[in-house]
Write a structure and sequence with these properties.
This protein is an alpha+beta fold and 325 residues long. The chain folds into two domains: 104 residues, Phosphorylase Kinase, domain 1, CATH 3.30.200.20; 199 residues, Transferase(Phosphotransferase) domain 1 (Transferase(Phosphotransferase), domain 1, Orthogonal Bundle). Helix content is 34%, strand content 17%. The chain has ten helices and ten strands. The strands form three sheets. It has a six-stranded mixed sheet with strand order 1-5-6-4-3-2. Strands 7-10 form a two-stranded antiparallel ribbon. Strand 2 and strand 3 form a beta hairpin. The two termini are 19 Å apart.
């Protein structure tokens, strides 16, 4: 659903400006609290009827430049194209004079970043990995690059909250929680990444090719998945990069094997897959989300068979993966 409003409330990028325009665009929403400012907008938790939604405000201007309007259109288009059981549900788009508002489902259980201190079992890592790689397979199959994969951008909701329309797809197997990818602000089409150099959204999760002559592609998302799952398994943080020189050196320095640092025993296949995803050469990594998901299913069948669904809190996607249409 898209709505156009001929308002004039947004004369700047401050929170007061976009809140005023939001009231014109979406009078049915009652703000609850801010979830954080952005350089070009903000994020808000709002009440709609008896439920909660998250509203992301995307400014059309940055200073005197209107370059942000194209960025707002791109993020909206990327999220619309990516819709699936393991992607945050887009419920409405409201287009005002100065801002575009994305109205999305509220994911009540935070993100994977909030669970970094927990020890993750091999079964939990595989089950959560099957969910996010279902989303990556869908994205890559549609010719899109997520370009900012990290624990903070994987939200968690309950299977019941995922919505009746998504229950069958989101929970191919029984489980209490569903992982969903969020924040498509850095997503690009694969054609766009081939046409010019395309940097990763978060430098700590940027693959080596982001800093070299190579082009970003599906294998770049695979590297960021490997970095994230290495962190979940080990709790081992790479020092935050403060300079371009540090980034270049880090890109050439492989992470320690995950089995050496893991806080819980990992199946050999899972440890090998995480390490393979972190190969500096994108040609030697799993090619895309579909291959990642296939290899995770192979590990699940070999290690646990049909029992995996009883060993994890996460709902499993259908074995055939998410359809691309």
């Amino acid at each position: 659903m898209a709505m156009a409003v001929d308002g004039s409330a947004a004369s700047g990028l401050g929170e007061a400006a976009w809140r005023a325009e939001l009231a014109e665009c979406c009078p049915e929403l009652t703000p609850v609290r801010s979830l954080g400012p952005r350089r070009t907008g903000g994020v808000l938790l709002a009440q709609r009827g008896e439920g909660l939604v998250v509203v992301k405000a995307l400014a059309h201007r940055r200073g005197r430049l209107r370059i942000q309007r194209g960025a707002a259109r791109r993020e909206t288009a990327m999220l619309q194209a990516a819709q699936g059981a393991h992607v945050v549900r887009l419920e409405a788009v409201a287009i005002g004079t100065g801002f575009t508002f994305l109205v999305m489902e509220h994911l009540p259980l935070s993100t994977l970043r909030g669970r970094l201190r927990e020890p993750w079992s091999g079964a939990e890592l595989v089950a959560a990995g099957l969910g996010v790689t279902a989303a990556l397979a869908r994205l890559h199959g549609a010719g899109l690059l997520f370009n900012d994969f990290k624990p903070r951008n994987v939200g968690i909701t309950t299977a019941a909250n995922a919505g009746a329309a998504n229950d069958r797809a989101a929970g191919g197997e029984v489980g209490g929680e569903v992982v969903k990818m969020i924040d498509f602000g850095h997503a690009r089409t694969l054609e766009d990444t081939r046409a010019r150099h395309c940097l990763c959204g978060t430098v700590d999760y940027a693959p080596p090719e982001a800093w070299g002559p190579g082009r970003m592609g599906p294998a770049s998302d695979v590297w960021a998945w490997g970095r994230s799952w290495h962190l979940l398994a080990s709790g081992h943080y790479v020092e935050r990069m403060e300079s371009f020189g540090q980034l270049l050196r880090a890109g050439r320095t492989p992470l320690p094997p995950v089995a050496r640092l893991s806080r819980s025993p990992l199946p050999d296949g899972l440890a090998s897959l995480i390490d393979a995803a972190l190969d500096p050469d994108p040609e030697r990594r799993p090619a895309d989300g579909r291959e990642l998901q296939e290899r995770l299913w192979e590990i699940a069948r070999a290690e646990w068979g049909e029992a995996l669904a009883t060993l994890t809190r996460f709902a499993l996607p259908p074995r055939e993966g998410e359809p691309l249409a």
